[in-house]
Amino acid sequence: xxxxxxxxxxxxxxxxxxxxxxxxxxxxxxxxxxxxxxxxxxxxxxxxxxxxxxxxxxxxxxxxxxxxxxxxxxxxxxxxxxxxxxxxxxxxxxxxxxxxxxxxxxxxxxxxxxxxxxxxxxxxxxxxxxxxxxxxxxxxxxxxxxxxxxxxxxxxxxxxxxxxxxxxxxxxxxxxxxxxxxxxxxxxxxxxxxxxxxxxxxxxxxxxxxxxxxxxxxxxxxxxxxxxxxxxxxxxxxxxxxxxxxxxxxxxxxxxxxxxxxxxxxxxxxxxxxxxxxxxxxxxxxxxxxxxxxxxxxxxxxxxxxxxxxxxxxx
Length: 315
Prior knowledge:
alpha/beta, 10 strands
C-alpha cells in the first residue's frame, strides 16, 4: 500500500490542562501512524501543564514538540487560530486538551486523504467519556458520508453544522485558502465548516475515531447564563450559514432548517437556565428569541406543551 508522505501536526490549545493533558498526549504519541509534530499553544497556564508536556516530550524523541506560550492569555477562541497560524505541516488536527484519539485515527484519516484529493477536512465519530475515561455514551458507527463542494443544504440538514473539531483533520493548503476560524463567535467551528464547503469537500468517516470527554471543569451550560448576548450572536451567525448555498431555492430551505435548529437550541438553553440556574427571566428571553427565529412554532401545540412541562418540572 502506498504511504502518504505529507507531515501531520496535532495542536493542543490549552489553559491549565494538567488534569487530562498527559492522557491526551499519550493518545497522540501512540498512534499507529506516528504524527510528525505536536504543537502546544499555552494560554499562560498557572498549573503544571508545561511540566507535564515536557515529560511526555522527553519520552518521545521521535516526535517534534513545539511549545508556544502566548505573551498573555488571548482567550480560548483566539488560541485555536494561533494553532492554525503556527501550523507548518501539510495536515493539522486541533484537539481539546481533555479529548483522546483512538489509536488508528490519524492512519484512517490520512488514508482517506490519499484517495480523495478534493477533500479539505476528514472528520469522524466519537464516544463520549467521563472524567475517568469510561464510556458514557458510545458513538454510533455509520456509513462514511462525503459532502461535496457546495452541498451546504445537505450538510446543514444532516449534521446541524456540527462536526467535532478535535477529530477534524484539515488539509492546510486548502484551509489557508478558506481562512481561519472567525473567533468573534462562541461556536466558531460550526460557523466555519459551511464556509469550507463553499470551496472544498468535507468527509465524516463512519468510524469512531475519538473519545470526547465530559467533566465538571468544563464551562458547558454556564455560558448560557454568563454569555447570553454572545450565545444569541453565535446562534444568529449559525442561522446565516445558509447564505453559503448558491441555489436561491436551497438558500430558502437552508434558512428554514437553521431557523428550526436555532429554535430548538434556544428552547433547550432556556430550559437549562431555568432548571439548573434558577433564572426564569433569562429563560423567557431565550424562548422569546426562539419564537422570533421560528414564529411558526406559535401555531404548534408542542411548543406550549414543551414550555408547560419545563415550568412544571422546575418547581
